[in-house]
Amino acid sequence: MSAFNAIGEDREVERDEYTPGIEPQATWCPGCGDFGVLKALKGAMADLGKDPEEILLVTGIGCSGKLSSYFDSYGFHTIHGRALPIARAAKLANPELEVIAAGGDGDGYGIGGNHFMHTARENHDFTYIVFNNEIFGLTKGQTSPTSPKGHKSKTQPHGSAKSPIRPLTTALTAGATYAARTAAVNPNQAQEILVEAIEHDGFSHIDFLTQCPTWNKDAKQYVPYVDVQQSDDYDFDVSDRREAADMMQKTEEALYEGEVLTGRFYHEADRPSYGQEKRELGEMPDEPLAERYHDDDYEWERSYDLLDPHK
Amino acid sequence: MTEEIVWRIAGGSGDGIDSTSQNFAKALMRSGLDVFTHRHYPSRIRGGHTYVEVRAGPDDVASRGDGYNFLLALGDSFARNPQEDAYYGNEEAKPLAENLDELREGGVIVYDEGLIDPEEIPDFEERVEENDWNVYPLDLRGMAREKGREVMRNTAGVGATAALLDYDLEHVEDLMEDAMSGEVLEANLEILEAAYQQVKEMEFSHDLRMPTGDHDEEQVLLSGSNAIAFGALDEGCRFISGYPMTPWTEVFTLMSKYLPEMGGVSEQVEDEIAAAALALGASHAGVKAMSGSSGGGFALMSEPLGLAEMTETPVVLIEAMRAGPSTGMPTKPEQSDLEHVLYTSQGDSSRVVFAPGNVMEAYEQTREAFRIAYEYQLPAIVLYDQKLSGELRNVDESFFDREPNPDLGETLTEEELAEAAHHASGKFQRFQHDPDNDKGVSPRSIPGQKGGKFLATGNEHTPEGHISEDPDNRVAQLERRLGKLDTIRDDLDEQEGSHQSYHGPEDADYGILTFGSQQGTVEEAVDRLNEAGHSVKSLGVSGVMPLAEAEITEFLESVDEALVVEMTASAQFRGLVQKEIGRFGPKMNSLLKYNGNPFEPHEIVEGFETIIEGSEPAPTTRFVPAAGD
Questions:
Q1: Distance between CA atoms of A163 and A120, rounded to whole angstroms?
Q2: Distance from B247 to chain A by nearest Cα, in Å?
Q3: Which candidate among A132, B64, B404, B454 keeps its CA 20 to 30 Å from the CA of A268?
Q4: Which residues of chain A neighbour B239 with C-beta distances below 8 Å?
Q5: Rounded distance, CA A132 to CA A154, Å?
Q6: Chain segment B101-129, per-residue pLDDT in tens
Q7: DSSP state letters, A44-57
Q8: CA-CA distance, A178 to A193, in Å (whole number)?
């Protein structure tokens, strides 16, 4: 039995349970795509019957980072780009926690790009939602790593000479075992994908297209999306790396010109998660480390027992 | 008959100098002597001049000595690199040539004539004569080759040492039997014995003999890094995350070795920002966690360090100083990260910094860092340096016979959380000032607990964790966080045994003030100064944040003048004392050393005499005149 009672009790959960008792004044702009992420996350957690207190939502900085303020669970609103390393350790310390990490495109693909690559390669067992609106919103509209080439902003007045990062292909190349793209304007698909991603035993990355009505009116955030799983035109094996990469390339090019594909692009179900690998190597205990501190019967080993080689 | 032996083994990096010296030190310890090692090595993997000194005596040895009296020069087997013509020619003789300056008069030299040709060293013969050195060329490489492999010439050297110093081989043999087996053991034992016998038959010109000692109880040989790792384990730390960097790597690798066996987790991650962030994540989730680095890596930890302060997340960070700025001198000690560690990260900060002065303090203060971090919910830093990191000394085994402490500090049970104050939003008032708790600590919940949900955020926040820029709330939260430092100061003052180390006569006229790893050397210098007729005492400070104000004030008030000894070029520690206490400026003089080597006792003796009596500065030190002059 868990030392933390909120964990492991299956029950019916209403989505309102994830809404703080008094509605905090959301600082997101009217029409912001971030509301769509919040709604989809609440719906997904309710579908999964997760107790709000067994969820740890770790966020970065920026508009996306405020998700943890408006979703009522344990939250850790961290620092710019660093949600992933904090989420990783929380999951290793207590694998029974339902850990969700969230950040924006600047936060997750820019300053936190290094952590993104390494979290994907290690295949930590949690879900990472990146709010992708192709712009730095909270700092008032600068070019982001996903802004299209030629994008003009106050910091790049002559237009960006950089090609946008390709988040899905990056995740796949780095070793993520689940990668999907969805959009705030498509809440039903978003919720379904979140459910699948959270249930996935490994690192699941979701590039979540979120419109920024204030700073990025040019982006193609409002166009209708094509759900690759719903369309016969895009039949592919979601567990095949090569086919997934091909489809990812299509959506990543189309984001800036043409119709945008969303849906699940890669799902590798049989690779053990990082925690599992570590347990098998004997590098991590079977029981959650955090529980040990609540177990009065646990016998703590002492350094005194390690002295022999030093004598 | 000599009082002490300072045995220096020199060779190329990768030639087994480190392991040979460790084993020899352990053999000496087992035979009842007190030992202390000093390690000098270059920032390269193989080749290049490296040496380790083992100082051994019948009584407490707490620092490196002044120079040494026995050189075992093995030759640098990696000096010649046939693939690289660009390499600087023949450096095989460096282990002999480079070590002559500090060899005491009448000292003994054993060199490997299989690798070293002393004719390559200009004026070698003259210097030998001048200094009355006793030179024994031995074909150590040949002996090793004959009975085993060339790398075993270290063993031949140890055998020769034992014969020359009249030391019982049995202790060395016992150690070898513990450490190896099979053919390797057989070969080493044969080489050891052969070298011993060969040298025994020679005629000696020296009168150095290994001193004898007698311990009351079993001893263990530990480095500062060992002690930090053991301290962390005993305080219930079961999670470490890090990135390799010299010299912090030693603690990291030790913890990575022990933790999986003890059911803990070690993570080597992509960079130091991630490393410190992981430690925070683990701690937030309810585990005792640590991370650490050396100067440049610690610079990256500045962000998570501030986050730990703002979110009141307990965490321990270890900082192993080396010479800076930037990459500096990776394998050379300095104490110049002091200000970096005290002040890095934005905002008014609340953190605790301990600077242990020796191996025992490294253990105790690492435990104390964890205790304080978890009891008061803030980051605590153990600041040490490359010197303390690698030096070995013997400690009574019973010193480690202590109870573990897995206490997470003030956390609430679910029953208590049910009764605890909650905000209208349903969130637990995690950051509320508890009027019943005069420590300024707000008890926390652990994610997963019922009734405990809250938001930890790097923004300023209300008691339940909602982001807030309300001025009254800001003042209340900030003052509560900063106020913990005063409480911690009182807490530390009340602990049994001071975190400061006093040495010398209480009523001395002059004082030497130092911090961290220079403590033992300063204390030895104080003894010598008093023997020479001066009236001196010392205070080695470990509590640098909060600064041990009361003790430093009292110490400085009690002396006419003080010398502040530190391995920085900008008198950072003296600056800290002046900033925090704001008095005594004219009383304090600086003795600074920043050439990559720690102080030797004689330098402090000379520095003291120079400053107090006004003679010329010694070449390796820089003297800063007293403020106000």
A1: 22
A2: 20
A3: A132
A4: 89, 92-93, 289
A5: 20
A6: 999 999 999 999 988 999 989 899 999 99
A7: HHHHHT--GGGEEE
A8: 10
